[in-house]
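Can't attach files on this board, so I'm pasting raw text. These are the components:
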Amino acid sequence: MPASDRVKRGMTESSWIRRMFEEGITLKQKFGADKVFDLSLGNPIVEPPAEFTSEIRRLAENPIPGMHRYMENAGYPETRAAVASQLAGETGIKYTGSDIIMTCGAAAALNVTLKTLVNHGDEIIIFSPYFAEYFHYISNHYGIPRVLPTDDRFLPRLDALGEAIGPKTRALLINSPNNPSGVVYQDEFLDQLGTLLHEKSARLGHPIYLLSDEPYKRLIYDGVKFAYPSRHYVNTIIVNSHSKDLALPGERIGYIAIHPDCSDRAELLDGFVYCNRTLGFVNAPAIMQHAIRRLQAITVSIADYQRKRDFLYENLTNMGYSMLKPQGAFYMFPKTPIPDDVAFIRELQQELVLTVPGQGFGTPGYFRISYCTDDHVIEGSLSGFRKVARKYGLC
Amino acid sequence: MPASDRVKRGMTESSWIRRMFEEGITLKQKFGADKVFDLSLGNPIVEPPAEFTSEIRRLAENPIPGMHRYMENAGYPETRAAVASQLAGETGIKYTGSDIIMTCGAAAALNVTLKTLVNHGDEIIIFSPYFAEYFHYISNHYGIPRVLPTDDRFLPRLDALGEAIGPKTRALLINSPNNPSGVVYQDEFLDQLGTLLHEKSARLGHPIYLLSDEPYKRLIYDGVKFAYPSRHYVNTIIVNSHSKDLALPGERIGYIAIHPDCSDRAELLDGFVYCNRTLGFVNAPAIMQHAIRRLQAITVSIADYQRKRDFLYENLTNMGYSMLKPQGAFYMFPKTPIPDDVAFIRELQQELVLTVPGQGFGTPGYFRISYCTDDHVIEGSLSGFRKVARKYGLC
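---
Top answer:
Structure tokens for the assembled complex are below.
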């Protein structure tokens, strides 16, 4: 009995994304890195913006005394204020520093939030296709992931949601721009969602919290605007990271932002601080809290991502692949030409093209492509995509 | 029902250390920072060694392409190899990079290890006085903290341990040099402990793991040597951080090191990687993994700590306070002159001297002093200590 039953179960069901990433490493060793076209992991190849590099240089050359010590578990007041000020400007909601908890990325923010909210057996609603890690995060704290469907535009089905919400429901977890579908929720949808949650909360006599996972909110194309869930529902808790907008996934820096008018705000904030501390995060890395303070308005270039998306979308649809054109993030989620998505991605893998089967996101019959990679990888993948498309009579 | 029952319970029982730290902030605002003598928190005021500062400068001036991206969840192979090489040199045990998982500090390392090991209701044995956070870490994963006593030298009582180990026991968690007592376990004791655990594991038919929390192992005085638990028991899992030896507590960098001959090593390592990922740590901060790679043999100056300890020990014992002379870490754990340790530290607080009551460490009748602070704070605290000592007839 070395590892616990829950961990063993978690490992067997573990991430298809990481599995493909690791199989990719093996394939690269065997065939050479330039022969393998890895579209499996959302690990941006762009470097952080120049403004980040100069902030780090400034800190390295002029260290602030005490800058590597413990601070309050919630983070530096100046960093929290900077995050709040940017959010307030974007949303028109009066966020202040006291609404912000700095965290070791969005994965930490979600674990902290879920641990704070969940009693053993409480339900957290997610929508398929979902980011597979959500399942593990919810289970960590003995919550039950309740998976609901989306419609043919990958929008959560509100009729199913209305039926599913019950006394055990503690929260919904949404993600727009969405990983893996690339869909961006619009104000009209969020307004309907907010109204439904408001009614259901009133009927149940306790708030249903809306957890909004927003790491891709700056990566949106074609002039589409990000619509803020917090503007449509007061009991919204934002979790975010700078992994994508500042290209810092390895540094683990992000935050929780609670709506200033959220129900039981003070107790939740105390809970977040307690869980940030006791889950072992303690605080978000000090140097990153110093570095990102002045970078709240900065984003990596999205023109490059849009160009990659356009190139790949055009080529794949010309080959006969069927998909919604993604509006944000850096993923595509086409249908597989055969029902068995694992068999399909294994075919692609034979051609040394690495993708992730839809069942890794709770949605068999699709596959995910991550295009936050070098152009030569994207270009090199086309011949494999074409060969498999031909095999299944798409073109 | 905003925060979950477990979190609410955790918060009420929450850390005396953090409570005193926070009350200290209020007192400083009221009376002025220079009038309050805060000996409550183990937040070292020393700056990181010059070698660290120049590593950060080197990285800032010559960024490595991709240095802020995701890496394998276990950490950079080069960093893991550097940690292993240092450990192998110190212990004579053949640690290699594959035995090391880089973590966001020791608090993360403990949560990852405990989540990996603990089934709902499994027992983890700790010894009073213990670092209070252990309680929360164990409870996070639905484990049961089983508290056992130490003897009059603050060494775990092996007779009590022998009786307490049963089918539900998964692991023991020890901490030498000890927070709060300052005791350093010696080889003779560890040998007896190892023998007992070996016998008990054989009788139960499953290994009892020894979790060794070693953040203070470089902070030892009077020429006393650190004795490695892993040399006395093969099923030892080290958790460590660079918060104290490199004075980087705000940066959250540490590691897990599993004994290369540990039972079920491969499954445990898989579990650690899985839990590091899904608890939301994902990986230890990338820049710190780059920075500490070449600093494995570096430690802050301990002469300063020893001087502070000697000064405070001599003064307090002269006033009549009774304590074991601490051999390591930067804490003292004297007896309170009255049985009610909370009443006693409140008396000190009236004199604007901040310490932590022993019951915060599961050991009423004592109090903890943290002396990793400025000399003027230590010197300034003496008059308050003297006044309260007189009140209780110590001198």
